[in-house]
Amino acid sequence: MSKSRKGIRRVVFKLSGEALSGPRDSGIDLKTLFKFAHEIKSARSSNIQIAIVVGGGNIWRGARGQGLKLDRIFSDNMGMLATVINSLALQDALEQVGVPTRVLSAIEIAKVAEPFIRRRAVRHLEKGRIVIFGAGTGNPYFSTDTAAALRASEIEADILLKATQVDGVYDSDPHQNKSARRFKTLTLQEALQRRLAVMDATALSLCLQNRLPVRVFDLHKTGNVRRAVRGDDIGTLVVP
Q: pTM of the entire structure?
């Protein structure tokens, strides 16, 4: 089971790139960006160390259309760069609201971000800074869900918090099935076996291997970021 509320000292947020687009079809919606920055600032007041992994789907999701597509490796590399753009935007928004932040990138991009080094990341967290992990794992074929599970395991986070567009994990798509049932709690093994829309299989397997619990919750409900950080019973808790 996950640690109690008082036992949580370090968390990793997984934030989708699409979440930053707000009401727009793509790109970064500044109102949405700054709303999330304020939510993180509020959550930070609980003295829990916070790291963030942000996706890049609002900028790049891979090109497929009109019978054409780009090479997978080229496309994934572009996606990793998109996450760096989102990471820098989030860093700026956080610092504008008074939250010290560092971006650590899995690919070398020294002009705009520090390289990812595990001990450096932990040191930043211990100094009270928000750490944003950009560029995924630094390798093609791996999602930012997997990057979040990897970074959370590396820095020994107590829980991975996945902020989504819905209020938890359901047994079917709640947008298509009004009778879909939301899980309050389930196991990582069950999520893998039932192929539930928590994270991809690689990410879930990594969480299972490292006994890392995951909480899935609705990003758009005001105050949920702080509630998730504090360990409140919101959304769905997926346990080892």
A: 0.92
CB atoms inside a 10 Å sphere around CB 76:
19
Distances (CA, A) of 127 to 20, 84, 207, 210: 27, 23, 26, 25
For the record, the structure tokens of 4 come out as 């109690």
**CB atoms inside a 10 Å sphere around CB 34:** 16
What's residue 4's pLDDT?
39
Token pair of 158 as six digits: 């107590």
**If one looks up domain 5-239 in CATH, what number appears?**
3.40.1160.10
Nearest-angstrom CA–CA distance, 63 and 36:
28
66 pLDDT band, cuts 50/70/90, is: low
Residue count of the chain: 240
Neighbouring residues of 109: CB distance < 8 A, sequence distance ≥ 6: 84, 135
| pLDDT attached to residue 3 | 43
For residue 240, the 8-state DSSP code is -
Using CA atoms, how far residue 190 sits from 9, 101, 111, 121, 237, in Å, is: 27, 36, 43, 32, 12
